[in-house]
Write a structure and sequence with these properties.
Largest sheet: 7 strands, mixed
CATH class of the largest domain: Alpha Beta
CATH superfamily of the largest domain: Formyl transferase, N-terminal domain
CATH architecture of the largest domain: 3-Layer(aba) Sandwich
Radius of gyration: 22 Å
Distance between the termini: 68 Å
Shape: elongated
């Protein structure tokens, strides 16, 4: 039986997935999200989920509008959950909830605080990552931890695949931790107790996807996997624009069909998207586009 009320803050597709989970066990008093972008085409996942579930929706475009929203639309929930929101939340709003605001962050905090922890876990070549549930504070991703779950990274992991895996891990943590926290059975601890190194991720830009073969082959191989969703790994091969979708570290220039020399190392381009938009093997690209 649903008895505990929550306010939910979220904007992106990860938020929509979490909302569908939480509504099964909690009364969602209000959903706070960003307004629909003026020129956006197609469905906005969080808005579609809220409408489908007949939940009240409120929008705020920035920190100031968020503060004003709670002044004019009071809520009675003692706790809020924030996932994939994209707006800085003031201390005023954090203090509005007696039990605070719980944020699900996709890294093992304090590792990879910031905008894009999933991509940077792959870029860094680390062997494991995870999900952290923390109480929100005004400083970026520095709140005390309620729970965390670890995930081992396979060597071929891409950002889209890892995102799906961490969503599932986040769901499991929320289902386990929220009832315990509400019942007073779970106490927050400082991030320093995890003994993880402090590091920061940033928001990606399109230019990050430009492949530079003057980099080490190992680094480019990680970039291709990390940028698989966006901004994608773009380059020119034989004078033709191409998107690299899969690579393999090669022993030398003859170890594979389409092998690029890097600094240092060699990288086979196993799969690409050609100028035609068709996905093909490196061997097929070589036959079709080499002058």
């Amino acid at each position: 039986m649903k008895s505990q009320k929550l306010v939910f803050f979220g904007s992106g597709p990860v938020a929509a997935s979490a909302l569908r989970l939480l509504v099964k066990g909690f009364d969602i008093e209000a959903i706070i999200t960003k307004p629909r972008p003026a020129h956006h085409r197609g469905e906005v996942p969080i808005l579609a989920a809220a409408q489908e579930l007949s939940l009240p929706i409120f929008t705020a475009a920035n920190k100031q509008e968020l503060d004003e929203l709670f002044s004019t639309n009071p809520v009675s929930s003692r706790l809020a959950v924030l996932i994939d929101f994209g707006i800085i939340v003031s201390q005023k709003i954090i203090d509005y909830f007696p039990l605070g605001i719980i944020n699900s962050h996709f890294s093992l905090l304090p590792q990879w605080r910031g905008a894009d922890p999933i991509t940077f876990a792959i870029l860094s070549g680390q062997a494991r990552t995870g999900v952290s549930l923390m109480l929100l504070v005004e400083a970026m991703d520095e709140g005390p931890l309620l729970a965390f779950g670890e995930y081992s990274l396979p060597p071929d992991m891409t950002t889209p695949k890892l995102t799906d895996e961490l969503i599932e891990l986040s769901h499991a943590l929320l289902l386990e931790a929220l009832p315990k926290y509400i019942a007073g059975q779970l106490q927050p601890v400082p991030q320093s107790t995890t003994k993880q190194p402090v590091s920061y991720s940033r928001k990606l830009i399109k230019a990050d996807g430009a492949v530079d073969f003057r980099k080490p082959a190992e680094q480019i191989e990680r970039e291709v996997r990390a940028y698989a969703g966006w901004p994608k790994s773009r380059t020119k091969i034989f004078g033709h624009d191409a998107i690299i979708t899969k690579t393999r570290l090669a022993k030398d220039k003859n170890d594979g069909a389409l092998v690029m020399q890097c600094r240092p190392g060699y990288l086979e381009l196993v799969e690409l998207i050609a100028p035609s938009g068709r996905k093909m093997s490196g061997a097929d690209f070589l036959r079709g586009y080499r002058k």
